Structures are given as C-alpha cells and as structure tokens.
Amino acid sequence: MLVASCFMRNPFTPSFGAPPPSLVGRADLVADFGDALDDGPGAPGRATIYTGARGVGKTVMLNEAEAQARSRGWLVISETATPGLVDRLTGEHLPRLLREHGENGGTKRRLSGITAVGIGGVNWITTDSPPPAVSLRHQIEELTDALAEHETGLLITVDEIHRKLTDDLRALGAIVQHAFREERELAFVAAGLPASISDLLNDDVLTFLRRADRHSLGAVPLDEVAQAIREPIEGTGRSIADADCRTAAEATNGYPFLIQLVGYHIWRQNRTESVVSTGDVEVGVAAARRRIGSLVLEPSLAGISDVDRSFLVAMSQDDGPSRIGQIAVRLGVDGTYASQYRLRLIDAELIASVGHGMLDFTMPYLREYLREHAAALGLPRHS
Ligand SMILES: Nc1ncnc2c1ncn2[C@@H]1O[C@H](COP(=O)(O)OP(=O)(O)OP(=O)(O)O)[C@@H](O)[C@H]1O
Ligand SMILES: [Mg+2]
Known about the structure:
This protein is α/β, with parallel strands linked by helices and 383 residues long. The chain has three domains: 27-216, Rossmann fold (3-Layer(aba) Sandwich), CATH 3.40.50; 222-300, Helicase, Ruva Protein, domain 3 (Orthogonal Bundle); 304-373, Orthogonal Bundle (Arc Repressor Mutant, subunit A), CATH 1.10.10.10. It is built from 16 helices and twelve strands. The chain has helices at 27-39, 58-71, 85-101, 107-113, 132-148, 166-181, 194-201, 207-211, 222-235, 242-252, 256-268, 278-302, 306-315, 324-331, 335-347, 366-373, and strands at residues 47-51, 75-80, 117-119, 122-124, 154-159, 186-192, 213-216, 239-240, 275-276, 322-323, 351-353, 358-361. A five-stranded parallel beta sheet has the order 2-5-6-1-7, sandwiched between helices. Strands 10-12-11 form a three-stranded antiparallel beta sheet. Helix 3 runs antiparallel to helix 4 (107-113) and helix 9 runs parallel beside helix 11 (256-268). The longest helix is centred in the C-terminal third of the chain and has 25 residues, at 278-302. The radius of gyration is 24 Å and the shape is globular. Bound molecules: adenosine-5'-triphosphate (ATP) and magnesium ion (MG). Residues 13-18, 20, 23-26, 52, 54-60, 193, 220, 228, 256-257, 259-260 line the site of adenosine-5'-triphosphate (ATP). It comes from Rhodococcus wratislaviensis NBRC 100605. InterPro entries: AAA_16 (IPR041664), P-loop_NTPase (IPR027417). Residues 23-180 form the Orc1-like AAA ATPase domain. Pfam families: AAA_16.
C-alpha cells in the first residue's frame, strides 16, 4: 500500500547538533540540570560538563540544558569555544542582553563595557574601556542583579571546549566561580571531546572546570532506541514490524548518531510504501554503516597520533576484546609502553577497559573500519 509521503520529510536528523525527533536515554540528565537550576546557587550541577565521543550527543545535551533554562524564564548565551570567546561575550552577547533586560537599559555600564564594536565598518575602542575580563565581570554582575529582581538567571553554554582556548576559559571560569560565591543566579554548561577535556583539567588554573559536575555520555539502552526508531516512522504514517525495529536498534549499538543515520537510511528506502520492510531495514543499515566511517570514525581517528592508531589497528585483529599483553607482542613493544598507549586511548574514549588486562572498542564499527582501512591509514594491514 502507498502512503502520501512522496513529499514528506525524512523525520531522522543525522547531522551534528540537530535535535533528534526523540531524545533517547538522557531524560535523567536533563532533569538533573533542571533541578540544579531550581535548587539555587550552590547546586553542583550549576557548573556542568558533558563529554563523550563524537556523535554521542554532547551538543544535543547543551541544547536540552538551554531549553531547561528558557522554560524557567532564564536568559541563555550559547557559544562555541572559538578564538574571541570573551570578546564576543563582552562586545556582543552581554551588551545585547543588558540592553534588553538590564536596569536603565544597561546604558551606563554597557558603554564602558564595550571594547571593540564595528559601526559602519569602523572599529573603535572607548578610551576608558576596562580589560575584557573586568568588563565581563561587571556585565555579568549587572545582568544577574537585574535578573534577580525577576527571579530568573543567566545560563552560559560553551560547546567544543579545548586547550587552544585555555586563556578565555580561565577568564570565564574565574568570573563564573566568583559569581557562584556571591550566590548569583548563574549557570555554566560546557561540552567537549574527552581528550580535550582532560587536557584542560590538567591545567592547574582551571580548577573551576575540575570541580564542575562532569557527565560522560555513552551508549543509550537498546529498547529505548527501538522506540526512538519506531515513533518517528509512525509519525509519518508508516509502520515497521517489531522484529525489524529490533534489528535496526541493534545495528546502532545504542550510539546516538547511528540512531539517526540508521533511521534516516531505513526511512528513505521505498519512502512511498506504508510499511518499512525487512529488506528496507537491511539496505538502510548497510547504507548507514558505509557512511559512519567518513562521518564519524575518520574524524575521530584524525585526532590521534600514528602510534595510537597502530595500537587500534593491532586491536582490530581480534574479533572481540583484546588482551593488552598480546597487543604489546603484536606491536613489538614492552608492556609499560603499551600501557601508555592504552591510557591515552581510554582517555580519548575510543577504547575501554573490559575486565582484567582486556580492552575493547567503544565506537560501533570501529574494528571493521580499521580492518578495511589499515592500509589507507598508512598502517600495516592486519594479517
Ligand atoms: N540522546 C539522543 N537520542 C537520539 N539521537 C541523538 C541523541 N543525542 C544525539 N542524537 C543525534 O546524534 C547526532 C549527533 O549529536 P551531537 O551533534 O549532539 O553529537 P556531539 O557529541 O556533539 O558530536 P561532536 O563531538 O562531533 O560535536 C545528531 O544527529 C543528534 O540528533
Ligand atoms: Mg557537538
């Protein structure tokens, strides 16, 4: 039977940062952040960091945290850790919010707070402009003072935090910490890849980040995944059998990006048919598997060193978990040396310890990808 879905949009969202049609397995975390906003200054969750592998849903969690804040009437500044972060806060976001919500329209301090603004293509700097960190503190204080009168607050989110931006994050962290001490209605949520976060946490000056509530996002439960594949399909007037839905869910390994990628490719097969068939699921899963490499695995491997990659290739020879001693033998290195690779790769959340001396991949299809691409990655192909 045909359905009128020729022009219906595919309900799945396999692109980074896109809100999924149904959010799987994160309800508790979202509620925890909402509680931290309700619990008032001093709630540990008011400084939160989400970390995890590529495509695990960090940006989506920042969006959810922002929605929690907005639903309580809070203001939100949503930023990414790119150069000029503090300047954007002091020169754009905070002046705009002060204009809209500050006392006296924020005029007095806004002027002295702006350090560089483009007007008609001309950049000017006020003669008595304080350094950005001082402006940042004043502006945040002024805004949170004004918001306190309405019993709301300010949430600042920063996506993709990493070491290159240590100075800006340090300045922002110090001010947020100070605001916490003064019991201001302020919350800070950041997200970043595990290796970037641990780099930052090793910087002594970033004690603030070290004290933040850190959540490592991982795979989500498969029964919830099946539901998250079924509902969007049914929402477009089509149906899928239980067994096919389970097969699709299993193919995702509970990895959020794959939920969207698998769903997307299953849905687009024979899109005008009212039933998603077993054949559609098989073809859709295969299409998703072919794409996961270039979309997620390749970028994840690009961020690590050649020696770390050769460790992964050595692991990919096993059909299941690998024994660390055996990997050392394959690589021709001693155990201590192999343990150092191991730690770095666990830190990057590409592999995990699964029992005494045993390691396994965390990302679905990484083993298969490494086997297929060992030569292209410039590494010895496994025997
Ligand atoms: N809990 C979830 N349930 C269903 N789909 C999800 C979930 N979290 C994320 N997704 C989907 O997974 C994809 C990747 O999400 P997101 O961009 O948030 O990942 P990320 O961890 O920020 O990745 P990166 O490290 O590359 O920035 C998106 O298509 C999103 O819709
Ligand atoms: Mg992201």
